[in-house]
């Protein structure tokens, strides 16, 4: 879950960090009996040092090295205290990771409730509680908790994004779309959020209907266009643009009045795009996806996304050949 931490890294990076944990912890562990914190007598105090402990903690938990993870927690508690909000959140994460069953997770949830009863604005613990509710499949409770969190922290883009995902999992498309729009009010140039909004709009337009919703598909197309305008090589943006324009061209071909008509804008809605415009965007997306899939080795694209792009191009080619 995205609320677990802002420090993310790949599986290979996590394994590499975890393998270094023993050496790192030994290097920064006191062997003397002085009551003076070791940080002040053997190595310089720095933000990077403690961020490294957090990274090590997360990596050790991901790789199952609970012993080293516990040492990292002890280091952080010794330095910042057990009542530090960030440390409390990390300690909760550790406890969740080593919990043996749902009963143990229930006890941890009760501890979170007690902490928040005394300090309702303890954001790290509140987010851990939300993550735990999700892991216990209590989605409705997680949605309620996120809504409450956002009342006190309305610009928390991580919380808005997570809430959007939860609404989407319940097929509550208008609410999911609203949450992403709130994110864009805070970070209007986030190309990945524009693309994500386009994806949610596309799913909304094509879910449970015999015919696609043209207006929603057109809005999805505009979001994908904005995404690639902000980031020219963004694969997900071009993938979404290709997928959406394919659907528009299929649902509203040249002989359809709906494809080229200009809808009334009295209510502030944008007009439907012309078939010619949709076709040009489709050709642009097809060309760019083909280019990206040919040069993936030197651009660091996600392998699964590249495979999906190739499959979309192949499917489109087969459809045209028919």
UniProtKB/TrEMBL annotation:
Main location: endoplasmic reticulum
Gene3D superfamilies: Tetratricopeptide repeat domain (1.25.40.10)
Protein name per its UniProtKB record: ER membrane protein complex subunit 2
Subcellular location: Endoplasmic reticulum membrane
InterPro entries: EMC2-like, TPR-like_helical_dom_sf, TPR_EMC2
Function field: Part of the endoplasmic reticulum membrane protein complex (EMC) that enables the energy-independent insertion into endoplasmic reticulum membranes of newly synthesized membrane proteins.
Family: Belongs to the EMC2 family.
Domain of life: Eukaryota
Organism expressing this protein natively: Lepraria finkii
Pfam families the record matches: TPR_EMC2 (PF22890)
EMC2 TPR-like domain residues: 111-205
């Amino acid at each position: 879950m995205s609320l677990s931490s802002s420090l993310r890294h790949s599986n290979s990076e996590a394994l590499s960090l975890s393998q270094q944990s023993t050496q790192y912890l030994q290097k920064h562990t006191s062997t003397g009996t002085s009551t003076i914190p070791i940080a002040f007598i053997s190595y310089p105090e720095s933000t990077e040092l403690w961020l490294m402990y957090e990274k090590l903690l997360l990596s050790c938990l991901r790789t199952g090295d609970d012993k080293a993870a516990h040492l990292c927690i002890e280091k952080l508690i010794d330095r910042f205290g057990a009542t530090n909000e960030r440390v409390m959140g990390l300690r909760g994460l550790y406890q969740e990771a080593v919990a043996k069953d749902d009963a143990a997770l229930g006890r941890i949830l009760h501890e979170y409730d007690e902490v928040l009863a005394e300090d309702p604005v303890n954001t790290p613990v509140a987010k851990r509680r939300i993550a735990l509710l999700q892991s216990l499949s209590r989605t409705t409770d997680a949605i309620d908790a996120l809504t409450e969190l956002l009342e006190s922290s309305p610009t928390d883009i991580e919380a808005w994004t997570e809430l959007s995902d939860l609404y989407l999992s319940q097929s509550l498309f208008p609410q999911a779309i609203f949450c992403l729009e709130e994110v864009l009010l805070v970070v209007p140039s986030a190309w990945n959020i524009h693309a994500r909004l386009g994806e949610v709009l596309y799913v909304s337009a094509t879910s449970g209907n015999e015919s696609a919703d043209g207006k929603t598909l057109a809005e999805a197309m505009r979001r994908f266009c904005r995404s690639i305008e902000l980031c020219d090589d963004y694969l997900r943006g071009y993938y979404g643009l290709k997928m959406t324009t394919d659907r528009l061209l299929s649902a509203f071909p040249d002989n359809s009045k709906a494809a080229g008509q200009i809808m009334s804008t009295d209510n502030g809605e944008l007009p439907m795009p012309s078939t010619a415009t949709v076709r040009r965007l489709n050709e642009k997306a097809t060309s760019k996806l083909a280019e990206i899939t040919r040069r993936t080795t030197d651009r660091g694209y996600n392998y699964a996304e590249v495979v999906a792009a190739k499959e979309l191009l192949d499917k489109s080619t087969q459809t045209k050949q028919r």
